[in-house]
């Protein structure tokens, strides 16, 4: 049998990426009917031509038509149903534990699947079955059937290579614990060979577990209370605060087999590595080769505790009478697989694609509208990925029971957002990792990324010329009044969410020593946002020339189509961010009409106004901190001056996380408590990149001047700056006129309007005739003591069998959740609330 175009194929090199997990344009996988067609020319995968499914888009034929690539390997996995019964005897809890893996390896599938291979030539409309055996995780030909050697070599190279997703998982799961500045240099130890050190008990209390050894002086103190009931009174932390000895070793984690232990640096507030640890321990009489001599109690490591916590932070999947909640299937009821602490991504994706504006924008759209959908890597094309997600979630094609499980109740297998997760990870490495991230932070990042992509000059993304993210935006109007002369000014700000202050009034302490808070109303929180309040810092008034307090009253100048409300649940306790589970009373309908500004600024007497300047957010030369974020930081326990300095250094960001991250990164700065020095900026002066980002680049070997230019030219995105630096190795770091206010920087310029232009457009188009009523559409919930651990799910209001109901999306599990238990979960753990404007 002859095959055409064999001269245009070759085996992939070691460094080439192989996409053999799912279709580039949909979620067809090898274990679904028809399998997957892997292109032998470009190593991408596409759904097959004819599987008897009318909803199939025949993406292999599309790829062939666009590129001329005609040779494909059809790879199909068929589950052995007889394995279900043999697997059903496995203890369910044992199966859960097996999921908590720190290491990702290729799974042996030969006992669970049968494998079928076919070589396809779309140009000749021909195919041939391949005689391939799969043994010991290696594919080999049993017979060649006269195939050309180039085909044999290419097929085997593809089958025996690691898939792109597996490489991503291995890379993301490998947590490299590094040394810090306190552990990389020699540690000066005190009290060595001291026989009075008691390794079995805290020096300040009677605890004999969760014990930490100070590597500087041998002090034994108990740690902080940890998940799973491990007690602690923070005496090791107190010892650090008193002595400034930063490094402590958890005695219960010492491992002879792996010659390691949990090492924590209190100064860096992170888990670290200590070189020559066994030598340091020996100075305090601990021989890691004979740990049994000390009868040190073995405990779970920090990593094991974190994984166990993420597994056990589950939401109620049973009704009031103890029955499993009813699984749901069908259109717009598709679950998402958890790829390893990816529940924060899944929850945000579910609530966004539940919105009509997202569905209209991406569902069933033609991939051919994207100019670069053919060339380059489609896995790194944002619009391709978003269309793929919309089709996968909304169509219902993949919302079917997972029959390949022994469980009596069949939930969904779910679709996996591997390529999407990899894509967002190219812009923000935190979202590529397997560590839990903040869902709200991811939401803001994704909205900004979509908008930046929309405004790219050379992409014909939207024929209707509508910016999708405009649905979330609104203008707030702040009236700043000098408390001395009573003159005032108005400042307009454009934002896409409201941050809600939460009053954490303690109700009682439970028997399990858990804090129980009083209920708090979301309406009361909204009233607090729009109340007249005094700023927490004194400013210079250019009218009365006195340093005094200013009052600030916030109103809405326009209203959004989609209202995002973020609950301020994070507080500081012993300088550690914790989350408070205050039950929130949520109204089904919110009316924002009373918060809309009624002032016509053009009719205000100019004599009543303060002198104006070109700054947005300044009174005279003074910096006006964002009052909502300022109050949030103060409520966490940060000193006032540090809060102001943090907001000044993050450009008055409306996201509290930005300021909080800056504070934690600069805790050791000796000048952190010095007064803020306000530098007045000229119109053409460029925004300076953060010192932390510059340092990150200089630590990689780049010159400071060139690193600064790279960040400015790439909109302060450090990942894109690195790419630019490698692409411009000879650059001298001198900014031309465009970077300082005019000219041409030779980069693609965004067509995005300025902030001032956007505000003016929103105010001009605002109509009070539109409804000011919003109904609650979805809620993202989080269970856990920290937003960086625990578990995220979302509840979405849907019509199920003619009745409005709450649907719980818990990763791949999609269930009906109208019972009292889950309604209480929404109150106690609601973190983000999505309200949609009534039409």
Automatic annotation (TrEMBL):
Reactions catalysed: Thiol-dependent hydrolysis of ester, thioester, amide, peptide and isopeptide bonds formed by the C-terminal Gly of ubiquitin (a 76-residue protein attached to proteins as an intracellular targeting signal)
Start and end residues of each USP domain: 334-838
Pfam family for this entry, one: zf-UBP_var
Keywords: Hydrolase, Metal-binding, Protease, Repeat, Thiol protease, Ubl conjugation pathway, Zinc, Zinc-finger
This protein's GO CC annotations: cytosol; nucleus
GO biological process: protein deubiquitination; proteolysis
Residues annotated as binding Zn(2+): 202, 205, 222, 235
PROSITE patterns attached to this UniProt entry: UBA, USP_1, USP_2, USP_3, ZF_UBP
Active site feature: 343 (nucleophile), 791 (proton acceptor)
Record domain UBA: where: 618-666, 685-728
InterPro entries: Papain-like_cys_pep_sf, Peptidase_C19, Peptidase_C19_UCH, UBA, UBA-like_sf, UBA2_scUBP14-like, Ubiquitinyl_hydrolase, UBP13_Znf-UBP_var
Protein name per the record: Ubiquitin carboxyl-terminal hydrolase
Annotated organism of origin: Ascoidea rubescens DSM 1968
